[in-house]
Amino acid sequence: MTVRIEESAREALAVEAAALSDALTDPLSRASYEELSRALGAGEVEDALLPPLEQLLELTLRTGRVRRLHGPLAEAAAVRIYQATPAGRAVVAALAEVNAALTALRGRTLDGITFAAKGPGVYGLSIDTPDAQLSLEIGPEGVLVRDLSVGD
Q1: Same domain for 62 and 123?
Q2: How far apart are CA 134 and CA 144, in angstroms?
Q3: CA torsion angle for 49, 93, 126, 61 (degrees, to 10)?
Q4: Alpha-carbon distance 128 to 90, whole Å?
Q5: Has residue 17 been placed in a domain?
């Protein structure tokens, strides 16, 4: 699989990969991000470099660094590129599942909605109706459907 890098993000992401490479002490990791920087500049990232690309995008998007240093257009492009990676496609699929579960509650009267801490950085959201109950888990890995029970 090859991920094509939008022109609007090539330079910004290549700079970020080079900066990360410079900050690393492990020679293999440094070399990986140096190679990634070159691939980003060229506009195509091959399979072998997808894990460091995903890590770079997750880091720069979570911290807001790509937006802060390169602007909102680079950030939007980075989001689209992330969504084209295997990790990004998994997030999109998980969100589609969550949205489908939420759709099952459409038109129903809410009896209760509860947000609870499940552990460090992990939260649960429970939505109850007279004939349905949905439990979601929100954490570092994203949003997951834990349980959906719908009666007629």
Answers
A1: no
A2: 11
A3: 40
A4: 27
A5: yes
